[in-house]
Amino acid sequence: xxxxxxxxxxxxxxxxxxxxxxxxxxxxxxxxxxxxxxxxxxxxxxxxxxxxxxxxxxxxxxxxxxxxxxxxxxxxxxxxxxxxxxxxxxxxxxxxxxxxxxxxxxxxxxxxxxxxxxxxxxxxxxxxxxxxxxxxxxxxxxxxxxxxxxxxxxxxxxxxxxxxxxxxxxxxxxxxxxxxxxxxxxxxxxxxxxxxxxxxxxxxxxxxxxxxxxxxxxxxxxxxxxxxxxxxxxxxxxxxxxxxxxxxxxxxxxxxxxxxxxxxxxxxxxxxxxxxxxxxxxxxxxxxxxxxxxxxxxxxxxxx
Length: 304
Ligand SMILES: [Zn+2]
Fold this sequence. Notes:
Layout: E1 2-7, E2 10-14, E3 25-30, E4 34-37, H1 45-54, E5 62-66, H2 72-75, H3 78-84, E6 89-93, H4 97-101, H5 104-114, H6 116-121, E7 132-135, E8 140-142, E9 147-152, E10 161-165, E11 170-174, E12 179-181, E13 186-188, H7 197-209, E14 214-217, E15 221-223, H8 226-249, H9 254-264, H10 266-275, H11 283-300
Parallel strand pairs: 4-5, 5-6, 6-7, 11-14
Antiparallel strand pairs: 1-2, 2-3, 3-4, 8-9, 9-10, 10-11, 12-13, 14-15
Helix pairs in contact: 7-8, 8-9, 8-11
The chain binds zinc ion.
Zinc ion binds next to helix 2.
């Protein structure tokens, strides 16, 4: 676990799932009360709890645990955190709320989509309904001195949220702005099926319209030049979609799309090199993202 102060009132914990550094971040916002953004998976949540202890956060101090969405690497650790922090409520998109209360289907889906990675992340615990805040766009989370504004940013998942933080003019992006491999300075898509490109692009515009200066990626870390990065990601998604379109028009499949993406997207070439030595992130996830865009274009079409 490493705890880094990333701003006057914001700390980042690298939860180091399965020992993988620079891959999953949780954030701790400290006002009079405390807000946690993203829990990481349940298997590494004790690293986050150690970070909170290191900061001296008292059990009754945590007001909210805000999760961008319920996927295991973002909200999987909610259960142990709520037990540890008895006054905290988990903030999740209303469509995600039932799956926090009863994670069985989520767990089954994660196993079929992620395979052995699901076991690395671990099975989430059910969360009591009365600890869940079903959030909607525009809602403000107030921790006396720090606030977060809820932004509905669906596309990656139909229940995805991002959180705008006014003091640093920053956005906690979850998976709505892609994966930022901070060690090599590269952004790659996270667009597994059923991905909605139209909604994801609308979400990127919505975030860009706030003119943020900082992004706080879950994968991974704080990054400046926020607008540039949001615009880059939108362009990258459109490039992949036009490649998918061309592939489909020729009657070709995912393999062909993969080849063309590699030819045309330098970021992905660098990422593929980088993931070779990675314990959790893999070429399979990148190809899964290509499949998500391929399926979207097949079902909904795409106009460049
Ligand atoms: Zn993720």
